Amino acid sequence: MEITDKFEINKTGKLMDFSIDHKEIPIKLSPDLDEAIKMLLWYVPNITSEQAKVNPLLLNPEYDDYIFKDIMASMKLGDRDVLFTEDIRENLANKFRGKLSVDEQKLVMTLADNSETKTMALLRHIRNAIAHGNFNVINDLVIGFDIKRYGERTEYRAVFKINPTNLLKALRKINIDLTTEEFIAKAFRKSGYRVEPFQEEFQRTHRFDLYAKKDEKRFAIEIRNYDFEKKLREDFIKEMIGKISGMDTRLRPILIINSSYLTEKSKNDLIKNEVIILDIKNIKKMQKGRDMVAEILREQEIYKNSR
To answer: CA 20 to 30 Å from 63, out of 1, 175, 178, 241?
Structure first.
C-alpha cells in the first residue's frame, strides 16, 4: 500500500446514473453508513464535538503516511484510488457526476495547510460533505463533495466515492487501534516483543506507558507526546530520571520521542541513566520488523568494550 501519483479514474465496468439529490426524504441508510455518519459527526478524535477525544497520533505529521496507509488498507483503497492535490478542477469533480463506474472507490482531497495530516483531512472532508447534505448513495457507494461556494463560483475541497462498510472499518480502527500506545506496541510486536500495559505489583500504573519483553530482556517504555510547535519543558529530564529511581533493576527504560526536541545535554543525561532513546525514525523501522532496540544495545556494548 503506497501513496503515489498513479491516481486514475476509469469510465468502465458497471455504470449507473448518479444525482446528488435524495430521492427519498429522509434518505435510507444502511446500518454501516448510519453508524459511520454518527461516528464522523460526534465521535472521531480531534473534532469539535463534546463527545470526541484528543488523539495526538493522528495530528502528528511524523507518522502521517504510515497512519494513512493503514487507513487506506482498511478502506480497501489502492494508490490508484487516492489523490492529494492543491486544486480540484471542475473537470475532475465532474467525473463524480452523471454516469459513474460503481465498481471502484476513489478519493480526491486537498489539505488545509502544511500542518494538516492526511487522516484528519479525510475525516474533515467526509464529515463536511455529510453534514451539509452534499452526498448520496448509489449501489452501496457513498459519493460526496466537500465544497465552498463563493457566489457563482464553487471551490472543491474533496470529492469521494467510497464503500460505507470499509469506511466504518477505518473509523473503528481510528477510534480503537490508532492510539499512540497501540501504534508503538504494534511496532514492538512486529520486532518480536511481547507488549502489554506497564504494571507494578500486578497493577496497572502510569509510571510508564508500556512494558515490553523479548528473550530475557525487559523494558519500561515512556512515550512522549508533545506539542509540535514547542520544545520540551526544561524539567522533563528530571521527571524522566525520577521515574527510573527505585524501578525494578531488571527493567531497562526506553524513551520514545522526536530526538530533535532533546538538547545534547539532555541526551547525555538520559544515556548516563541507562535510558534507551528511540526516535520516530526508529519506530518506523520497527514497524517493518527491524529490532532497533537490539541494534542500539549492540552499539552501546561495542562502544563500552572499545574504551
So the answer is: 241
d(CA 36, CA 127): 10
- 3-state SS, 217-235, equals EEEEEEECCCCCCCCCCCC
Give the whole-angstrom CA distance, residue 84 versus residue 40: 21
C-alpha cell at 292: 532497533
3-state secondary structure (DSSP) of residue 78 = coil
Q: Given this model, what pLDDT does residue 277 score? A: 93
20 with 135: CB under 8 angstroms?
Answer: yes
Q: Is the pLDDT of residue 286 over 50?
A: yes
Q: In whole angstroms, what is the distance from residue 82 CA to residue 299 CA?
A: 41
**Alpha-helix runs per DSSP H in 94-161:** 118-131
Query: Where in the chain are the domains?
Result: 15-177, 180-305
SS3 state at 258 = coil
Distance set, CA 118 to CA 129, 142, 146, 228 (Å): 17, 20, 15, 16
Residue given cell 448518479 in the structure block: 18
- Tell me, yes or no, if the pTM score tops 0.85: no
Contacts of 294 (CB under 8 A, 6+ apart): 214
pLDDT for res 229: 46
Q: Please, which pLDDT band fits residue 42 given cuts at 50, 70 and 90?
A: very high
